[in-house]
What does this fold into?
Amino acid sequence: MALTRMRTISGCMEYLRQEDPESCITEYYLRGLVKQNKVPVFHAGRKQLVNLDKLLEYLSGDQEVKEPEQVNYGKLRRVGE
It folds into this structure.
C-alpha cells in the first residue's frame, strides 16, 4: 500500500524548487490554488497538508477541466402580488 505524499505548502515549494530551480511558481500561487479548492487539502490543526501527487497532476494539466455550475435563481415578480 503506497502512502500519499502529504506536504505543507512550504514543503511543496521546496520540492518544486528541487525539481525545477527556475520554476516561476510561487508559494502565493499555491496558496491561491488551495483557497480556490483546485488542489485537495487536508487540515491538521493549523497546518494545511496538500497532496503532492494531486498538485503535480494539476500543474501538469492532466486533469479534467470542470465547468462552473450555473446557478439559476428565482424569477422576478412584481411587488404586491
Q: What stands out?
A: The beta strands are 6-7, 41-44, 47-51. The helical segments are 9-19, 27-35, 52-60. The mean pLDDT is 86.
